[in-house]
Amino acid sequence: MAVRDLPGSTIGRRIIVVGPSCSGKTTLGAEIARRIGGPFIELDALFWKPGWTAPPDEEFRARLIETHTGDTWVSAGNYLRHTRHLTWPLADTIIWLDFPLHLTTRRVFARSWHRWRSKELLWGTNHERFWDQLMLWSPSNSLIAYNVSRHRRNRQVFRRAMEEGRAAGKRFLRLESPFAVERLLENLAADVERTKPTAP
User: What is the number of structural domains in the chain?
Assistant: First the structure.
């Protein structure tokens, strides 16, 4: 089904948004959660501890299980090593933001600069390391370098996961541009409006 034909209700009420860094996972996930009236779960907030320290696998998995409960929720983030087996089976729909590399690269730079200049506290624990983003030789430090070095491979991983999920009966949406995202939200808004109870 094309995105332009997708009624908002078709995506269900348990939704996962995945994609590369700065594709807009958090923005889209939070907006969908607001519109369907469910909690929003940001996986980066569950994962990162103070000092950009990663939690033990068991601790992160426990957080995933604890937060992805109920009939309505929206989560945004990848962490496929954990989520494909823990949260994906619970979802009604998985939305893949498959945006061009040049777009996400510009967004990484702009977001990192803004967060660094504003001293924004991320998830209550950490601050942006803007100068790390300029370490283009080091994918472990720079999201720009990571996006470039992993773009093709990650697309293959997501495509394979999407094919396997569809074969198992899971619903996937692949959105390849910000325009496609806007169309999805427009359709969702129209569906919410149609299903509002009428005043007596």
Answer: 1
CATH number assigned to the domain comprising residue 144: 3.40.50
Q: Which of 168, 35, 8, 34 is nearest to 95 (CA)?
A: 8
Separation of alpha carbons 20 and 182, rounded Å:
18
CB of 74 within 8 A of CB of 15? yes
Q: Identify the domain containing residue 113 by its residue range.
A: 23-193
Q: Convert the pLDDT of each residue in 10-59 to its tens digit.
A: 788 999 999 987 788 999 999 999 999 999 999 999 998 888 788 999 99
d(CA 185, CA 181): 6
Question: In this structure, are residues 175 and 184 in contact, taking their beta carbons and an 8 Å threshold?
Answer: yes
Cβ neighbour number for residue 76 with a 10 Å cutoff:
27
Q: Give the predicted TM-score (pTM) of the model.
A: 0.79
